[in-house]
Amino acid sequence: MGAPSGSPGAEPDSTTQVITQSDVPAWPAADSQLRDYRAAFTAARTPMALVGLDGLVLAANRALGTLLGTPPERATGTDAAVLLGLAGDAHTGAAFHAVLSGRRARLRCTRGLTRTDGSGFRAEITLVRTESRPLLLTVEDVGERDALREQLRHLRMHDAVTRLPNRALFLERLAEAVERAGERGTGRIGLCYLDLDGFKAVNDTLGHRVGDELLAAVAHRLQGCARDGGHLAARLGGDEFALLLRDSTGTGQATGLAEAVLTALQQPFDVGGHRLAVSASIGVVEREAAGSTATQLMQAADTTLYWAKADGKARWTLFDPERNEHRMTRQALARTLRQAVERGEFVLDYQPLVALDTGRLRGVEALVRWEHPHFGRLAPNRFIGLAEEDGSIVPLGRWVLAESCRQARAWQQAHPDRPLVVSVNVAVRQVWDSDLVADVAAILRRTGLPPRLLQLELTESAVMGSAGRPLQALHALHEMGVRIAIDDFGTGYSNLAYMSRLPVSALKLDGSFVQGFRSAEHPNPADETIVEALVQLAHRLGLTVTAECVESAEQAERLRRIGCDTGQGWHWSRPVAAAAISDLLGA
C-alpha cells in the first residue's frame, strides 16, 4: 500500500495539518496484498510505525528502530506519544489525541528527539488516520535538511568579500535589537555608520582585486573593534560598514567606538603589493530605543555620515536633532519653493539708501521675504541659496524685478520731485539661465519706470573675470541706462583695475569694513585707511560708494568724512514695507 497523502483543502495549523478521511487510501484486503504490504513496511527506508486507536505502537519497521537507536520490536506496545516526546507538549499532545479519536485526520509537527545513546536530532513527525483501524506514523530526520538550509541562509546573509554580515542581516539584527532593548538591557541602542574616504580612487587606479583585499583588511580591523565590546560589525555594500551597539551605555560608548575605529584605520594597509592609507567618515547615532525603528535609526545614521563628510572627512560626527531639524526644514523649503513663486507667497521689503552729506533719501534696496504658510516669514538667507541650486531663482528673480519696478514707478508718480533709485539683487543664474536683458527691457516698458531709476546689484565674485554672455549682458544693460552696482565689495577679488573695464556705476562696501568703525573711543586706524583708499580709488574711476551695515551716528559721520556717498543700515531704518517708504517720501 502507498503512503497516505494530505488533503489540499485542509486547514493549516502551526503544529498540525488536517486532511479529510476520504484522502486516505484503503487498506488492501487480499492476504497476498497484506503480505506485500508488510514486506514493504518492514523494508522501507522511511521510518514508520502502525499505531492503534489507543495510541500504542502496534508495529515499527527497521528504519524507525535504526533512527531511534533501538530494535523495532522494543517499540511495540509503547505509547507513541511518549516514544516521540509528544506527551510533554500540551498543544501537540492534544492534537495527537484528536487524531486518535477521529476529530482530526492528520498531525504533522517538527521537534527534537533523543536516541537511546543520548544523541539528539530534529525530526518531522506525521500521524495519519487510514480507512482501517491502524494509524500510520512516519518519522523523518530533517537535521541535514535544516543544516543545509542554515548554510544557504548564512551564504545569503553574509558578504562574500569580507565574510561580515551583509545589509539584510544587519537590518534584521538592528530591528531585533530595537524590539528587545526595552525588554531587557539598558533600553538604549547605538549605531556607527561609516564610509571609507577616497576608496573609489583605489578601485579606479589599482583595480577591484586590490580594492576587495583592502575591504577585507578593513573588515578585519572593524571586527577587532566590535569584538572588544560584543558589538556587531557588518558591510552594508560598497565601502560602507556599520557597527551596532545592542545595549549602549550612553553616547560616550558610541563615540568611543567611533574613535577606536578611526585609530584602528590609521595604520596603513599592505595589500596586493601596495601600502595604502585609508580613513573613514563616521556617523554616530545613540538614543533610547523606545519610539525608534530600524528605518529611522538608519536614516539618522546616513544623515550624520553625510555631516561627517561635509565637516571634512576622517572624523566622526554625532547626530544632532537641531541640525537635523534644520536639514528637514531645508528639504521642505526646497520641495515647495518653485510652487511658492507660482502661488505668490513672496513679498518685498525696502531698506533706505541715504546720502551721507545731506541725510536725504536717495534710493532703496529691494529685499525679498517668503511668507511661508508653515514656517512664517523667512529672510533671504533661508531660501535664496536653495533657489539658486534648483533654478527657481530665475522666476523668483523675475518677479522681484517686476514688483520692484512697479513700486518704484508708483513712488515716482506720487513724488515726481523726489526721484528714488530702486536697487535689485541679481543672481548669476539669472544671467546664464534667462535673457536678463530682455526681461529688464520688458519690465521697464510695462511699468514705465525710467532705466536711470533702476540699479542692479551683482556680487563681486560674480562679475570678476566675466566673459561672454555675462559681460555682454552688463554692457547691454548699461547702454539701456540701467545702473550696475557691485554688492559686498571687498569680499572677492578686489581688482579695481579690472573693474575699470566693466560698465559699473557703484560699489557697495561689505559690512565687514564698517565693523571697525563701531567704537569711537578706540578706532582702528587701519580700517579707516583701507576704506578711505578704496573710496578714493572708486571716485577716480567714476564710481559712487555705498557703505552697508551702518548702525550708529558715529559710524555714519566717520564714513561721511572719508568720502562715502551713501549709507545703508539700521542707523536709518531696518527693511520696511513699501508703505513706510511712501511715508518717508511724503514727510
Topology:
Blueprint lengths: L30 H13 L4 E4 L5 E4 L1 H7 L3 H4 L4 H4 L6 H12 L4 E9 L5 E9 L6 E7 L1 H14 L10 H15 L6 E10 L1 H8 L1 H22 L2 E6 L2 E6 L5 H14 L4 E3 L2 E3 L2 E10 L5 H17 L5 E3 L2 H23 L2 E10 L5 E12 L3 E3 L5 H7 L2 H22 L6 E5 L2 H6 L2 H12 L6 E6 H4 L5 H12 L2 E7 L6 H4 L6 E4 L1 H5 L9 H16 L3 E4 L5 H10 L3 E2 L10 H9 L1
Parallel strand pairs: 11-12, 14-16, 16-17, 17-18, 18-19, 19-20, 20-21
Antiparallel strand pairs: 1-2, 1-5, 3-4, 4-5, 6-8, 6-11, 7-8, 9-10, 13-14, 13-21, 14-15
How would you describe this protein?
- It is elongated and about 125 Å long.
- Helix 9 (about 210-230) packs antiparallel against helix 10, helix 14 packs parallel to helix 16 (about 435-445) and helix 16 (about 435-445) packs parallel to helix 18.
- Strand 9 and strand 10 (about 275) form a beta hairpin.
- It contains 23 helices and 21 strands.
- The termini are far apart.
- Strands 13-14-16-17-18-19-20-21 form an eight-stranded mixed barrel, surrounded by five helices. Strands 2-1-5-4-3 form a five-stranded antiparallel beta sheet.
- It is α/β, with parallel strands linked by helices and about 575 residues long.
- It holds the Pfam family GGDEF.
- It comes from Actinacidiphila acidipaludis.
What's a quick, concise take on this entry?
The chain is of the alpha/beta class and 587 residues long. The chain starts with 30 loop residues before the first helix and ends with a helix.
User: Percent range for helical residues?
Assistant: 40-55%
**End-to-end C-alpha gap:** 114 Å
Net shape: elongated
Adjacency order of strands in the biggest sheet: 13-14-16-17-18-19-20-21
Number of strands: 21
Low-pLDDT runs of 5+ residues are 1-30
β-strand percent reads 15-25%
Largest sheet: 8 strands, mixed, barrel
Number of helices: 23
Rg result: 41 Å
Q: Structural class, from helix and strand content?
A: alpha/beta
Mean pLDDT: 85
